[in-house]
């Protein structure tokens, strides 16, 4: 039977929403599922993890060195815990998991499966390649499976669990070559891009950060999160954490608005799981219309304010 | 101080990917290839660090068939001083690649390893982290700003929450994200000069690396296709259509 360890992502005492989606992938594999919380003081995070359905045990390692999630420091601790009989180590496919998982896999001398999007068996998974344009079915080699989970492919597990919480002490020595300096986080009252049911994104056509106002207005009208194309981020209209796409955030909202976005394959890679795509673009030939469920050929600077006013 | 930059030859990012009808992979024959875009950014960063006097030598390294020589010539045109091809005709998965790159890094006595954060073919996003892990050195992934000074690097990283800044001691691995820089346009004289720069060939065996057990791909399929939807003429029609579907 599989024995799965899910590595918890958290910040400021809050468990990240990515964990419950990673747990959904673990549930598909089946077996015992434990969650590992590495923190300065993990009690609050562990209590949240213990409430998630399907969790057998929450393991907590308290260490001041874990105040910030630094891959080089977390990896040796995970490797030590992994050696107590785990068959799978699952990491959320966020920048946290992507930074950390390979560091662990290399230490365990195993290849890593990135971005699992479907589970066929304990070692058989689907994962996307070529910006999601070729889906491969892969078989992990014998030994421990180290994988990241593509969050947009899984639905968060429910609450209602009551797992036991256990505190571990770790003997691994941690390196001193990496120091945290600062985090400039974007504070937003809007729904988080990666879990929002509705997302409105603006592209290069917005022309300035000022003009992005009409995107925020529409988003606020319908309670949506706000995203952007790479071109909009590169141009400095919005911060980097809003980029949607192959190399930005992969999202799966019920409703997605692509506004002034041409629909490059790298952008589409981020919205393949959106239930309904609405495109507003003045160019009827824009590739975004090939995938949009509803397309409106119009100048966004008139169409978007009009849309907001009618909602 | 020496920097090692790894570059990979991949299907060009503008190519529309075709999955073979027998599910055995994607069509790569007769398809335009180029340097992985993230590796171009890594190369550009190394050249800028040398221009600032932070590093003195840039060695570009690639793993692949002789076709990867082209990619290394591109790296040399960017400004690498020399290049190393680790010749391997078959598929090389990230852990094996990382072992080979770590071996070259040690052999060269480099202080900085710069790579793209992911290659746009397998989209694995693993190799840089694995190199750092195998060498037990610091890593700063997804970099959007790099400052190197006095045996340290201060790196700003693009993370889901925003921008994180780390300070790492050298030697270290840095992986490049999109906004680290805009790679220069290569000029003909640089391309000509690159032809004369040294390009050495080695193998996994020479480096003492045996391929780690690999992940087996049993099938490749195209993603589920999205059907083209409807085009509405007015905002009113759009609102009505979304309401009719219960989306608003
Ligand atoms: C390695 C790599 C990774 C990448 N990763 C990503 C990624 O993660 N995410 C991403 O988004 N991109 C990514 N890209 C970039 C991608 O290839 C495109 O360049 C980018 O998505 C284009 O952004 P855009 O659609 O906003 O801009 P454009 O392609 O310039 O499109 C602008 C659109 O706005 C329309 N428009 C202009 N004015 C108006 C108006 N007044 N009203 C209505 N419509 C108007 C135009 O008709 C056009 O269709 C990546 C590229 C590479 C090489």
TrEMBL record, chain A:
GO MF annotations, alphabetized: electron transfer activity; flavin adenine dinucleotide binding
- Domain (Electron transfer flavoprotein alpha/beta-subunit N-terminal): give its ranges: 4-184
Tell me the cofactor note. Answer: Binds 1 FAD per dimer.
A Pfam match = ETF
Ordered alphabetically, the record's keywords are: Electron transport, FAD, Flavoprotein, Transport
Q: Which SMART domains match?
A: ETF (SM00893)
The record, for InterPro entries, names: DHS-like_NAD/FAD-binding_dom, ETF_a/b_N, ETF_a/FixB, ETF_alpha_N, ETF_asu_C, Rossmann-like_a/b/a_fold
As cofactor, the record names: FAD
Task: Kindly state a single biological-process term from the GO annotations of this entry.
Answer: fatty acid beta-oxidation using acyl-CoA dehydrogenase
Ligand binding (FAD): 204, 229-230, 243-247, 260-267, 281
Tell me which family the UniProt entry assigns to this protein.
Belongs to the ETF alpha-subunit/FixB family.
What does this protein do, in the record's words?
A: The electron transfer flavoprotein serves as a specific electron acceptor for other dehydrogenases. It transfers the electrons to the main respiratory chain via ETF-ubiquinone oxidoreductase (ETF dehydrogenase).
**PANTHER family from the xrefs?**
ELECTRON TRANSFER FLAVOPROTEIN ALPHA, ELECTRON TRANSFER FLAVOPROTEIN SUBUNIT ALPHA, MITOCHONDRIAL
Protein name per Swiss-Prot or TrEMBL:
Electron transfer flavoprotein subunit alpha
Its source organism is: Solimonas aquatica
TrEMBL record, chain B:
The UniProt entry, under CDD domains, shows: ETF_beta
Q: Which InterPro entries match?
A: ETF_a/b_N, ETF_b, ETF_beta_N, Rossmann-like_a/b/a_fold
Keyword Signal on entry? no
Q: Which cofactor does it need?
A: AMP
Q: Where are the transmembrane segments?
A: none
Q: Please report the stretch or stretches of sequence annotated as the Electron transfer flavoprotein alpha/beta-subunit N-terminal domain.
A: 23-211
* An MF annotation (GO) of this entry: electron transfer activity
- GO BP terms in the entry: carboxylic acid catabolic process
Keyword list, A-Z = Electron transport, Transport
Q: Which SMART domains match?
A: ETF
Assembly:
Heterodimer of an alpha and a beta subunit.
The record's family statement is:
Belongs to the ETF beta-subunit/FixA family.
| Function of the protein | The electron transfer flavoprotein serves as a specific electron acceptor for other dehydrogenases. It transfers the electrons to the main respiratory chain via ETF-ubiquinone oxidoreductase (ETF dehydrogenase).
The molecule here is called Electron transfer flavoprotein subunit beta
Q: Which organism is it from?
A: Solimonas aquatica
């Amino acid at each position: 039977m599989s024995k799965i360890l899910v590595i918890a992502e958290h910040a400021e005492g809050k468990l990240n929403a990515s964990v419950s989606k990673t747990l959904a992938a673990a549930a598909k594999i089946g077996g015992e599922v434990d969650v590992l919380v590495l923190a300065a003081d993990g009690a609050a995070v562990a209590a949240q993890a213990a409430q998630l359905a399907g969790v057998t045990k929450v393991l907590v390692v308290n260490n001041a060195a874990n105040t910030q999630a630094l891959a080089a420091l977390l990896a040796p601790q995970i490797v030590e815990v992994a050696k107590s009989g785990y068959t799978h180590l699952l990491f959320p496919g966020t920048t946290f998991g992507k930074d950390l998982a390979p560091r662990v896999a290399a230490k365990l001398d195993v290849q890593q499966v990135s971005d699992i999007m479907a589970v066929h068996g304990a070692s058989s998974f689907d994962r996307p390649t070529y910006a999601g344009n070729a889906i491969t079915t892969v078989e992990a080699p014998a030994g421990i499976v180290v994988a990241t989970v593509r969050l947009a492919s899984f639905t968060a597990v429910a609450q209602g669990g009551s797992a036991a919480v256990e505190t571990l002490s770790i003997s691994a020595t941690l390196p001193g070559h990496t120091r945290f300096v600062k985090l400039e986080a974007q504070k937003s009252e809007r729904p988080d891009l990666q879990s929002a049911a509705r997302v409105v994104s603006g592209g290069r056509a917005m022309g300035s950060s000022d003009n992005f106002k009409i995107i925020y207005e529409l988003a606020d009208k319908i309670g949506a999160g706000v995203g952007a194309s790479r071109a909009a981020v590169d141009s400095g209209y919005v911060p980097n954490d809003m980029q949607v796409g192959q190399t930005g955030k992969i999202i799966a909202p019920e409703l997605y608005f692509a506004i002034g976005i041409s629909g490059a394959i790298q952008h589409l890679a981020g919205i393949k799981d959106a239930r309904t795509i609405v495109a507003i673009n003045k160019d009827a030939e824009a590739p975004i219309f090939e995938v949009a469920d509803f397309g409106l050929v119009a100048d966004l600077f008139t169409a978007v304010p009009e849309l907001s006013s009618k909602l | 101080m020496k920097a090692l930059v790894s570059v990979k030859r991949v299907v060009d990012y503008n190519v529309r990917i075709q999955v073979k009808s027998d599910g055995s992979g994607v069509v790569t024959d007769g398809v335009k290839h180029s340097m992985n875009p993230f590796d171009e950014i890594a190369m550009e960063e190394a050249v800028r660090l040398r221009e600032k006097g932070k590093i003195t030598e840039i060695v570009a390294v690639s793993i692949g068939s002789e076709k990867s020589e082209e990619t290394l010539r591109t790296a040399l045109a960017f400004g690498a001083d020399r290049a190393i091809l680790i010749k391997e005709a078959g598929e090389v998965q990230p852990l094996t690649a990382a072992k080979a790159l770590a071996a070259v890094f040690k052999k060269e006595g480099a202080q900085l390893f710069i790579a793209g954060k992911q290659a746009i073919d397998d989209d694995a996003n693993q190799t840089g982290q694995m190199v750092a892990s195998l060498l037990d050195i610091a890593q700063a992934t997804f970099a959007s700003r790099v400052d190197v000074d006095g045996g340290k690097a201060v790196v700003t990283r693009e993370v889901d929450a925003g921008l994180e800044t780390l300070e790492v001691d050298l030697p270290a691995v840095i992986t490049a994200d999109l906004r680290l820089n805009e790679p220069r346009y290569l000029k003909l004289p640089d391309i000509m000069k690159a032809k004369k720069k040294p390009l050495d060939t080695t193998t996994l065996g020479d480096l003492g690396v045996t391929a780690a057990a690999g992940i087996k791909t049993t099938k490749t399929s195209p993603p589920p296709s999205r059907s083209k939807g409807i085009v509405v003429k007015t905002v009113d029609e759009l609102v009505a259509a979304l309401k009719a579907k219960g989306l608003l």
